[in-house]
Amino acid sequence: MQKLKLFFEERAFGVCYRLGEKLNFPIDSIRLFFIYASFITMGSPVILYVSMAMMMKIRKYFRKMNNPVLFD
Question: What is the rounded CA–CA span in Å between residue 15 and residue 52?
């Protein structure tokens, strides 16, 4: 079961995981916050989640572009 959980954490966007690491906060609590907030506000945190995921991907792309690997 733990391998399955790690698989989905790595393959999904990883927004909750990154926030939990940066803020030293339990990842499960952040996920529950997004779920409950989505039900209460009818989906607006989903927009926030997707935009944060896009920013993470763009940031990773720019880091890769700024640090090219040179083969000799």
Answer: 7
CA-based R_g, the chain, Å: 15
Summarize the chain as % helix, strand, coil (round to 5).
80, 0, 20
CB 16 within 8 A of CB 31: yes
Backbone angles phi, psi at 40, to 5 degrees: -70, -45
pLDDT digits 0-9 by tens, 14-65: 788 888 888 888 888 888 888 888 888 887 787 887 788 888 888 888 887 7
What pTM value is reported for the model?
0.57
- 8 A C-beta contact, residue 51 and residue 13: no
Distance, in Å, from the CA atom of 12 to the CA atom of 10, rounded to the nearest integer, reads 6
Distance CA 69, CA 6 (A): 29
